[in-house]
Amino acid sequence: MAWKSASAVAIISAGTLLAASSVQSANVDQAFQQLEDNPFASFSFSQDVTYDDEAVIDNRSTLDIEGTFTAEEEFDVEDRSNFNVSGNALFEDDLRVLGQSEFSIGDTLTLEDELDIGKFSAIHVEGSGEFDEINAEEFSELRIGSTALFTEEISFANRSMLDISDDAVFDDEVTFEAMNTFHVDGTAEFDEEMSGEKNLEMNITDETRFHEDVKFGVNTDFHIEEDVDFDDELKVKDNSHLTIDGATTIGNELEVKPKSDLYFNGRTDFGNEVKLEAASTMDVEGDADFANEVAFKDATDVTIDGDADFANETEFGPNSSLIIWGDADFANEILVKPGTEIIVLGDADFGDSMDLPHAADFYVCGDASGPASSQTTDCDAEDVDEETVDIVAELE
């Protein structure tokens, strides 16, 4: 067993103040025994520490280490206790920070086994972090000051927080339960499914890639400040708000539930079906390429700032709006439902037929060509209603 000495006095719960000479002769075993057995115990070590047995810091006790720390067996910090390490820390077995306790690492943290973060408990890492499985309970927080690697599943319960100040890699599933805050100040890569069940506030400042399904629950607020690749499905539930400042690629289905808003501030490629449900909004500040079927449902509002290519069947409405600032290419059948207005400010090419009822309008401000072109109305036609004229004038 590694043997280390304490560099300062130790205050034991009974109020006994040990002389410095006594503390110098106390080994790590004795210190950890006091930290487990005595409320308000406090120890400080000024050199590297390795502990090869199970350890519990309990009942408002404190351990400070000015150096590195290695725990070879299970390690618990419980009941409003504090554990602080100025250097690197390695935990080879389970780590549990529970009961409103605080845990601080001044440099890198490496966990080789499971991490449990209890209610109202906090872990702060100044450097990088490497983690195995994580279970974070309500109102807990994990802050990492540099890069982070998560090799197993991580889950965060209600109102818990994950904050990473640099790049992050997630090798396994990521789950946020409700009312969570998730922030990455760097790039992020997710190798497995990522989900936020409801009320997730999520922000990533750099390029991001999701290799598997992404599922956002109701009232999600999602913001990525650079390019994003969704290799698989993206599902967004009611009343959610998604903003992506760079280019976006969605490799599989996009499904957006009612009353949600999506803002793509760069070129956007949709690799499979797109379904936008009632009273939702989608803005694309660039070109948009739809490789499969598109359905913009009841009372949806879609604006595409560049060109739009629709490779398969499209369905718009009822009572919806679609505005395309550039050219539009509709390669397959178009179904427009009553109360819907479509405006293409550039040219429009139709590769197939269009079902356009009397109670819907399709305006083309440039040249219209193809089988359905005769069903469109020129933006300068005399019978264009005043409201549409105003809209076109404002757009132009």
TrEMBL record:
<protein>
    <recommendedName>
        <fullName>Organic solvent tolerance-like N-terminal domain-containing protein</fullName>
    </recommendedName>
</protein>
<feature type="signal peptide">
    <location>
        <begin position="1"/>
        <end position="19"/>
    </location>
</feature>
<dbReference type="InterPro" id="IPR012332">
    <property type="entry name" value="Autotransporter_pectin_lyase_C"/>
</dbReference>
<keyword id="KW-0732">Signal</keyword>
